[in-house]
Design a protein that fits this description.
Blueprint: E1 13-15, H1 26-33, H2 39-47, E2 51-53, E3 56-57, E4 70-72, E5 90-94, E6 98-103, H3 120-127, E7 151-157, H4 160-171, E8 176-184, E9 191-195, E10 199-200, E11 208-209, E12 219-227, E13 231-238, H5 245-252, E14 273-281, E15 288-292, H6 297-305
Parallel strand pairs: 7-14
Antiparallel strand pairs: 1-4, 2-3, 2-4, 5-6, 6-7, 8-13, 8-14, 9-12, 10-11, 12-13, 14-15
Helix pairs in contact: 1-2
Length: 306
């Protein structure tokens, strides 16, 4: 048995929860014992069957009673740098300082828990010899991100100087980001603005919420493009870049993004959220650049069906 101190582990390791650990979640208990590892990594080990309680597989949410035998078989750590992979990438714009690419829905931007290959970064390091290093070896060139299920235009920095210049534009909110979203229900007004702070949902930790009245400042503006019987097609411009901002904001006014079951919409093949246009100043020339990503065929087909 290993006591309460945190230790890196490389082989089968066992713990015996004390009576004072009763009613703790399994993942919380292990995170207290193994603080060298993230909760997301520990949860991945649990999902992969690498954690057993009294010899049986268990869920992260299992409540301990005390006295069980908890065993952990760690998985190998992910690579310390992104490996190049010969996968397609669509370039929408490039100059000597920046590349604008069209990220497909379903593609993760960079490696993380449960995604070590097939990411946008794996594609970038294959196709481009030099990218900024400010984000580290796992995130070369990455200045901002899109959710896995969101498609559309993303900026990638070629150099450290370009990375700093773009990061400053995002921080000062001079980058204009416009999305296209189909939402459930009919929005009565032609346009609107949502000014609600966004925080981590205290109940479902995998999502955000704009219903608590506190959190990080967030601003979204929308304009109706078209109305359908059960949906509204919107153009959404965001003044801040919070995690899941558009999804949480639109859900908070009763109009979740179509297909986004995480935020209460009916399930579909993908969520209808597309990063359509970005306007920024090129670090190379200083000129304002507008880049648009074409709407994916599956989303165009969805609109035609409506």
């Amino acid at each position: 048995m290993i006591g309460g101190s945190s230790l890196p582990i490389s082989r089968l390791t066992s713990f015996t929860p004390a009576a004072s650990d009763a009613a703790k979640r399994l993942d919380h208990f292990l995170q207290e014992r193994l603080t060298d590892y993230s909760r997301a990594r520990i949860q991945t080990w649990i999902r992969d069957g690498r954690v057993t309680v009294n010899g049986a597989a268990a869920k992260a949410s299992m409540l301990l009673r005390g006295g069980e035998r908890v065993e952990v078989i760690p998985a190998e750590l992910p690579p310390l740098r992104a490996a190049p992979e010969d996968l397609p990438i669509e370039v929408l714009y490039e100059d000597e300082s920046v590349i604008a690419v069209n990220k497909p829905a379903g593609v993760v931007v960079h490696a993380g828990a449960g995604a070590q290959s097939g990411t946008l970064v794996n594609r970038l390091v294959h196709h481009f010899a030099a990218l900024s290093k400010i984000g580290g070896e796992l995130r070369p060139g990455i200045v901002h991100r899109l959710d896995r299920g969101t498609s559309g235009v993303m900026l990638v920095a070629r150099t450290d100087a370009a990375h700093r210049a773009l990061a400053e534009q995002f921080a000062s909110r001079t980058v204009e980001k416009t999305y296209l979203a189909l939402v459930e229900g009919k929005i009565a007004t032609g346009s609107g603005r949502i000014d609600k702070p966004i925080a981590r949902d205290p109940v479902r930790r995998t999502r955000m919420t704009a219903r608590l009245g506190h959190g990080r400042e967030a601003h979204s503006e929308f304009r109706v493009r078209e109305r359908f019987e059960r949906f509204t097609f919107l153009e959404v411009r965001i003044g801040t870049g919070r995690t899941h901002q558009i999804r949480a904001h639109l859900a908070s006014i009763g109009h979740p993004v179509a297909g986004d079951r995480v935020y209460g919409a009916r399930a579909s093949a993908r969520i209808f959220l597309h990063a359509w246009r970005i306007v920024f100043s090129s670090p190379a020339t200083g000129e304002r650049v507008t880049v648009e990503a074409p709407v994916p065929a599956e989303l165009e087909g969805w609109l035609k069906e409506l």
